[in-house]
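User: Teach me something about this protein's shape.
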Amino acid sequence: MRLTSVLMMAAKYVVPKNYRYGTSRPWTAAARLRNPPGRTRNKVFVEPIADQDWTVLKGDMVSILAGKDKGKQGKVVQVFRRRNWVIVEGLNTHHRTIGKTADYHGFRIASEAPILVRDVALIEPLDKNPTEVVWRYTEEGSRVRVSVRTGRIINKPVVERRDGIVTEGWNDCPKDTSKEDALEKTYVPSLKTLEEEVMEKLGIVENRRHRRSYWY
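Assistant: First, the predicted structure itself:
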């Protein structure tokens, strides 16, 4: 990936007014294709859900409550809080044809369509049945999800990073940098230039100074 692409991703993207969110990130080409400059799309009204009240997370096992896959269970692979959507792996799929030309019929692929978060329910880990959940605090002060039906705590799912590493299960190796070494302060900031710091460390004394220069 080019450096310019990385910098563009790192920069804060300013979403235009009346922007209609979808399954693509706003700065991607697919999103720009659906929201071209100068085009006004119909406003979509979304039920506001605060971030602290969101109970379905990526990696959760959920049950479908409505639609053609009602009663089936699957794993949440994506969450879109701007539209109250979740995508469940292998469920609510639709087929589309890609690669079709005048000489080739193309081929059909299946892709998951988003589902409203109100149409899914978390699965109780012990009995594998859907249940409503609420946020509660433990005696230690930790905020956890609690099943309304059974009162049991439903832990947050363990999600792998893009490189396949699970942070919670990571074990340090002998060549890994320890926490103490990473937090050790080995640099003392100063107002001196790099050359002045090197000269001071080597014991070089230089009394000459550059003449002042003016831009006008």
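Now, about its shape. The mean pLDDT is 85. Helices lie at 3-10, 29-34, 179-183, 194-202. If you'd like, I can walk through any region in more detail.
User: That's plenty for now, thanks!
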